[in-house]
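User
Class, as today's exercise, I want you to study this protein, comparing sequence with structure tokens, and judge whether sequence predicts the tokens.
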Amino acid sequence: MRDLSTFQGWRLTFFQGVLVAVFAIFAIRMYDLQIDRQADFQAAADDNRLSILPLAADRGVIYDRNNVLLARNAPAYVVEITPAALPSDTAGRYEIYNRISALTGVPPTFAAEQQGTVFVRSIERIVKEGEGIAPFTPVAVATDIDRQAAVRLLEDRISLPGVDVRTVAVREYPTGELTSHVVGYMGPVSAEVAEALRELGFDPRFEREGYAGIEAYMENVLAGERGSITREIDVAGEVQRELSVVPPTAGNSLRLTIDVDLQAAAQAALTSMLDRLQRTVAVARTRHPEPARGCHRHGSAYWRNPRLSELPVLRQHTLCPRHRRRVLPDRSQRSAYAAAEQGIGIAVPAGIGVEADHRGGRA
């Protein structure tokens, strides 16, 4: 029989201690991974497994006191292609590219983009780039196409696998220059906002924010709240199922105390007065060697109803600060004058009547 005495004593005790230490290290490490850092690993797994598709909210429209539209939403059409849904053969893909190119004017292939005098990325290039990053994510190959082309593509969608037309809202101002200094305008989002939108899945190229006037001052009221769709995707980005949907909340519409008809009349009167004054000064200069001094090319029109604290008219051509005290003696009027001088009608709170209207951009 084999002698086991050499495996007893301190050697056996040391070996048992090593086993206990190893199992203790494994237990501590498992506790760290499964308990302490469970939230971090769960978030990383969800980030790979889940995809959040943002839903844009309808922006509120703007009316004058008589419900005349000053700012509204109009549809713009974007052609998108899902690279993974395209035919696998090159000939089939080129046929789709050529049909889209015929309706949108975007070069279909690498060779076609080199032939133009101005470089425009071809459909083939855009799809190739998207296919290498996320084959199941649609890429925009043409933006702001006309409605007839969009309808043609939608009609032929059954024979154009992977092609879709998405509708986005763009801002229109029916009254144009007449109320531009009051309503303001919209422009591309800032770099900080663009980066935050990219993290949320938005394309900053199609996002706008108010830059001036009512559009900027009432941005939080008009913009509404974006929604989202949470989807489960596989490693290639293909959607497996939808987990939750948060619908967007449309922005509120605004009704101002500005009267478009009175605004037009004020502009016509102001222009006529400045023209007459210009002619008068021109005659005076021909009679006197010394140039006549006067602010003959600048002026503003301002009418306020003090009883109702309303501002139906705020019009400025360019302004003459030398006439400020003589024409606008009241402090509130001077603040309106200063606001008009900068083209900002919102500086006078009494001039704006805001009414909540949940119809948003659908009005």
Remarks:
- The first strand starts at residue 50 and ends at 55.
